[in-house]
């Protein structure tokens, strides 16, 4: 199997001595070389699912199976760059010297549009540029999967739109495998090859988004009807 498979995954936390069931039996295929979006309202367990899948936490019950290679990188809502390191050193942070292929790092920095900013420090960059550096750092690590937890949520509308387009371009170019968490339906529709709607600790619906020629237009009938369907799924409680 290539990619990641979740089989009947359960997770609960104990809060104030009471168990809180967050994931109640999630089964899911996450293919490689695609963007799989986990969509759901705030507090539904998206971050928990991402942390489990990325190996930061253990499942209580069920199983997560990985393809041949299991190396994950994370991109969070905040860029989490080292303020005392410039872009180049942030991107190569965590790589052993022998793994630092100059040309490859240069091409990754170029792919995220930070050419010429290699020597800049995080405080000298805009929020969008900092997030691009965080994405470059994830790519440089050459993970089998990139786990992204609402990476653009803190950006303004225009920067966010630009970053979404750039992510699609970079993903297409590099063939990256991405698990992307968001609470924004529009973001899911713009980015996802597959969209997984989580509600009440379970997979409520899954959509395979058909390929479109060129950029996706959310005002196309296809996307309007997908959006309507997703909203209906998120609004109904069983
Ligand atoms: N480490 C933790 N300890 C206790 N409760 C947690 C912990 N992490 C998450 N939770 C709870 O689990 C639920 C889901 O959280 P989370 O996965 O962060 O949701 P989302 O990312 O969808 O907003 C929330 O009710 C949250 O309070
Ligand atoms: Mg979260």
From TrEMBL:
Record GO terms (molecular function): ATP binding
Stored SMART domains: AAA
Keyword entries, A-Z: ATP-binding, Nucleotide-binding, Transport
Signal peptide as annotated in the record: none
Entry-linked CDD domains: ABC_NrtD_SsuB_transporters
InterPro entries for the chain: AAA+_ATPase, ABC_transporter-like_ATP-bd, ABC_transporter-like_CS, ABC_transporter_ATP-bind, P-loop_NTPase
Domain spans labelled ABC transporter: 4-225
Top-rank taxon: Bacteria
Gene3D superfamilies: P-loop containing nucleotide triphosphate hydrolases
PANTHER family: ALIPHATIC SULFONATES IMPORT ATP-BINDING PROTEIN SSUB, TAURINE IMPORT ATP-BINDING PROTEIN-RELATED
Name assigned to this protein: ABC transporter ATP-binding protein
């Amino acid at each position: 199997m290539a990619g990641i498979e979740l089989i009947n995954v359960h997770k609960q936390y104990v809060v104030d001595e009471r168990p809180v069931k967050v994931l109640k039996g999630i089964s899911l295929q996450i293919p490689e070389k695609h963007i799989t979006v986990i969509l759901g309202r705030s507090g539904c367990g998206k971050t928990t699912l991402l942390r489990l899948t990325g190996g930061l936490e253990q499942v209580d019950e069920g199983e997560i199976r990985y393809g041949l290679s299991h190396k994950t990188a994370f991109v969070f809502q905040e860029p989490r760059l080292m303020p005392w390191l410039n872009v180049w050193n942030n991107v190569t942070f965590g790589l052993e010297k022998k793994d630092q292929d100059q040309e490859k790092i240069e091409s990754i920095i170029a792919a995220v549009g930070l050419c010429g900013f290699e020597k800049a420090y995080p405080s000298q960059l805009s929020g969008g540029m900092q997030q691009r550096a965080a994405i470059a750092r994830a790519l440089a690590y050459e993970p089998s999967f990139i786990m992204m937890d609402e990476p653009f949520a803190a950006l303004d509308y225009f920067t966010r739109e630009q970053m979404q387009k750039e992510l699609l371009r970079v993903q297409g170019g590099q063939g990256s495998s991405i698990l992307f968490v968001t609470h924004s339906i529009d973001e899911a529709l713009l980015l996802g090859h597959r969209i997984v709607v989580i509600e009440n600790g379970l997979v409520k619906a899954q959509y395979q988004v058909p390929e479109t020629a060129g950029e996706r237009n959310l005002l196309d009938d296809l996307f309007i009807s997908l959006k309507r369907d997703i909203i209906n799924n998120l609004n109904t409680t069983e």
